[in-house]
Amino acid sequence: MKDNFSTQSDKYAKYRPSYPKELFNYLDHIISNKNNAWDCGTGNGQIASILSKTYNNVYATDISQSQIDNATKTDNIFYSVQAAEKTNFNENFFNLIVVAQAIHWFNFDEFYTEVKRTAQKDALLAVIGYGRLKISKEIDDLISDFYINIIGKYWDQERKYIDDDYKTIPFPFNEIESPKFENVQQWNLEHLIGYLNTWSAVKHFIKQNNYNPIEQLQIEIEKVWGTETTKAIHFPILLRVGKIEK
User: Fold this and answer.
1) CA R_g for the chain
2) In the chain, what is the greatest distance between 2 CA atoms, to the nearest angstrom?
3) N vs C: which end of the chain shows fewer Cβ within 10 Å?
4) Is 8 helix (H, G, I), strand (E, B) or coil?
5) What is the pLDDT of residues 165-218, one digit of tens each?
6) For residues 120-143, b (16+ Cβ closer than 10 Å) or e, as one string?
């Protein structure tokens, strides 16, 4: 798994979007046993924090110590630096395994082997993510042009799975048809720019070109932002849920 997020992990925790509560209400509804959950690729711990309110124990892993250092802490979240594909968890342990905005970085076959090993019979795997944001036509056009034409060649090849709405990832489980969810955030311009700066392709661009292309994009967005302090930022939620049969 690539580690694109250890640098500036404090900004990742500050600017990345959260997930709608309706999504977790749905997961709570379809899972009866809420003893042990695994948040794999936890990043800033936002999913672990939500799960900790309904699960007795939440085990949150990431390959980045820096991310974990900046993660939300509670008494029933147990953080550890571990790769998704090989952990020290017991067999038949988890009732729910969640991967949020991270599975495209994993070795699928090895991770799924670990999922099947550590999950209890009929546990669920929930693969979650979010697609490209939408704000307004003018702003969306600017961000789309930036995404494709300015930083397009700097995206890791794994990004294609998000662009395909996670529909093209292998998913060897008994899939459960799930409702569609949308995440709506109220952000000011500073927060939007902070979020765009967390994109891995932007980091790759800066490393190769020694300047930040977001600065010009910000100028263009400011021209069409208008008088509103904040705007509604819409993220389509990507979701695949599967039952782990043994």
Assistant:
1) 18
2) 57
3) C
4) coil
5) 999 999 999 999 999 999 999 999 999 999 999 999 999 999 999 999 999 999
6) beebbbbbbbbbebbbeeebeebb
Task: Write the DSSP assignment of 184-233 as a string of letters.
Answer: EEEEEHHHHHHHHTT-HHHHHHHHHHSS-THHHHHHHHHHHH-S-SEEEE
User: Side chain identity at 43, as an amino acid letter?
Assistant: G
Confidence of residue 246 (pLDDT cuts 50, 70, 90): confident
Residue 187: Cβ within 10 Å count: 19
Residue 12 pLDDT exceeds 90:
no
Token pair 């309904």 is found at 54
Alpha helices in 63-125 (DSSP H): 65-69, 108-118
Percentages of the chain per state (helix, strand, coil), in multiples of 5: 40, 25, 35
As to burial, measured by CB atoms within 10 angstroms (0-12 exposed, 13-18 middle, 19+ buried), residue 57 is: middle
**Which two three-digit tokens encode residue 25?**
């209400």
Interatomic CA distance for residues 215 and 193, integer angstroms: 9
Predicted pLDDT of residue 6: 47
Q: How far apart are CA 101 and CA 131, in angstroms?
A: 9
CA atoms within 13 A on the CB side of 27: 29
Tell the residue number behind the tokens 């705007």, with chain if given: 231
Instruction: Please give the Cα distance from 166 to 99 (Å, whole number).
Output: 12
Chain center to CA of 14: 14
Q: At CA 209, angle to CA 207 and CA 212, rounded to 5?
A: 80
Phi-psi region of 166 (alpha: psi -120 to 50; beta: other; left: phi over 0): left
